[in-house]
Amino acid sequence: MTNKPIKIKATDDSDRTAMGDYIKRVDDTNQPAPVIRFASALGTQKVAAALSDRFKVLKSLGASDACEFYLARGSGNEPVVLKVLSGSAARDFRQRELFRLEAHAASRLSHKNIVKTGEAESVNGIYFCVAEQTAAAQTLRDLLSRTGWLDLAQAVSIINQIADALTYAHSREVLHLRLQPEKILVDQNGVVRITDFGIDAGQQSGWAHAERSRRLEAQYQSAEQMCGASLDQRSDLYSLGVLLFEMLTDRLPFDSEDAEHIRRRHRVKHAPLPPHVLSCEVPEAVSRVVMGLLEKNPNKRFSNAKVFQMTLNRLMSLDADAEAIEDDVPLVEADVLSSYAVDVIE
Amino acid sequence: MYAEYYGLKEIPFGLTPDLNYIFRTESYLEVISTLKYGVEHNKGLVVLTGEVGTGKTTTLRSTIQQFGEEVLPVYIFNPFLTAAEFFQQFIEGLGLGVPQAASKPDVLATLGEFLALRHSEGLRTVLIIDEAHGLPSPVLEEIRLLLNFETNSEKLLQMILCGQPELQAILNRPNLRQLKQRISLRCEIKPLSPFEVGKYIRFRLKTAGAERVDLFDSEATALIGRVSQGIPRVINNICDNALLYGYSASLEEINRDCIEEVIESLDLAPTDSATSEPVDFTTRVRSVI
Fold first, then answer.
1. B34 in reach of chain A (CB within 8 A)
2. Which pLDDT belongs to residue A329?
């Protein structure tokens, strides 16, 4: 079988090829997997040869950032996904160290909404970790791209599962810092699994936090990620807010094809337009909860995923208006549209 | 015809204003905020301009819908009136029973009492004139005089003039400088940015009940944005025709070739502004993409 090569244009573009994509293709045996060829790619043959004592490498699944992904079978014939540090990255000490830290952090997690990953290993000069092969699923990016905004119940179901995973990971001192729709898998039953965890929350990992943040698309970055400040779980909550915003509106709080433009708007604009202003299908109370995640100042955001989740679910079960949850929602301007009007006129 | 083929419950790209299909951009929200602010704070005269097809009328109707019960709007959409016809329409819109044979001073007196009464009860009255770039000078002069209904501190009648960009030039005429001085707020509906065009198309497809909103591929969307220059009415026209074309050609997705066909059939190919000659369309479009 001859696979058609795919050109990788630039780092930023390859950033968009997410880890989630390769997992989706696993069960799609009729489709030849793309062979990613770029200067530093290791390639299937080299990886297969280097790891032949432990794995039977079946095919390449694609590439993302500095890694290549392969479908393989382990010694017990069980299907696995190999995440392999690509050639040029493997020669860079910082990239190797980041790879090790990420795998180490991810290996500490075992949760139904998180894709399992093992510790980093090195065999015959190949740096890799083993990830579980998941059931066929699509990324949230694919889902949104095809269907546009989701109905409230579906969006809440997805965000609840992501929040469950974050609550668990944060309790184990692991941050994600790269939450975007490409990292979220949704299967046919609506079960969500997050890929590409994570990094230790400790501040000694600051450089790794910054590196992961750099690889996150600007639209999903919190203000503190943009300005290189120290990060904690609240940065993940900001990205969570962007995900919910996007699921409810098919729009983004700050959006442009130009990342610098987004950064500028982050600095200049007081707040993004709330979801209920952009879409009349979003209840104002839910909109306020979303805005509680999107606060620029982390101190004004929900303090953790659990509090956010409890607030949202209480709201959903009450089906009540904003006053019912007023005490739980962080300080958000009461009438954003009015203040917006004043901003505009001034 | 194509709706069923593409899984749509209704036609997504109709050319008549439909408030269900309002795509809320920052520009739209700024305009709505400005118009409501002007009326709610008794600012007198507000001017709204926008290119043909940007959604001025839809925005006005949306604004009217958002006014509370304390606001009585009178909407005049045909500007080609004599001063007498204008007054007649306005008075009828307010529901005032003024005999047709009444003299102008009598009409103005009745109007003044009506506006003062409403104002004293905390109610507001708004005159909204669409297509105001077509208003003849005598009517513009009457409008200026209507703005003289005021208390010591507030206007009794709020007014929104809405028209194409040439309305600004008209208001700059020396003989209309008094009217121009009374403009308290101006706002403009801008065309969609290239980035917003794709979102707009997806929004309308979803609102029309589409299960797939990615019917137009990225190259097709970019081309639509380029040719339409972000004007929603042109986008609607292209998309409507493209879906019809796609249906007849059994296309599952609308691609760039399909859009090129539609643009040619609608004679929308851009011309070179310097020579007014049609440009090599294909080359230009591809260079843009």
1. yes
2. 54
Contacts of B34 in chain A (CB under 8 A): 341, 344-345
For the whole prediction, is pTM greater than 0.90?
no
Look at B29 and A273 and tell me if their CB atoms are within 8 Å. Answer: yes
pLDDT tens across B91-129, in order?
999 998 777 778 888 889 999 999 999 999 999 999 999
pLDDT at A10: 31
Q: Which stretches in chain A have pLDDT values below 70?
A: 1-40, 267-270, 318-346
Question: How many A/B residue pairs have CB atoms within 8 Å?
Answer: 46
Taking an 8 Å cut-off on Cβ atoms, the answer to whether A341 and B203 are in contact is: no
Check if A145 contacts B (Cβ < 8 Å): yes
The CA distance from B283 to B287, in Å, is: 6
Is B24 close to A279, i.e. CB distance below 8 A?
yes
For residues A41 and A65, give the distance between their C-alpha atoms in angstroms, rounded to a whole number. Answer: 11
B109 min Cα distance to partner chain A (Å) = 34
Question: What is the ipTM score, two decimals?
Answer: 0.83
Alpha-helix runs per DSSP H in B147-213: 166-171, 177-181, 194-207
Strand B157-163: give its sheet, edge to edge: B71-76, B124-129, B157-163, B45-50, B183-189
For residue B76, list its beta bridge partners. B129
**B29-64 confidence digits (pLDDT tens):** 999 999 999 999 999 999 999 999 999 999 999 999
**pLDDT score at A152:** 95
Tell me the backbone φ, ψ of residue A186, rounded to 5 degrees.
-130, 120
Q: Cβ contacts (< 8 Å) between B210 and chain A: which residues?
A: 148
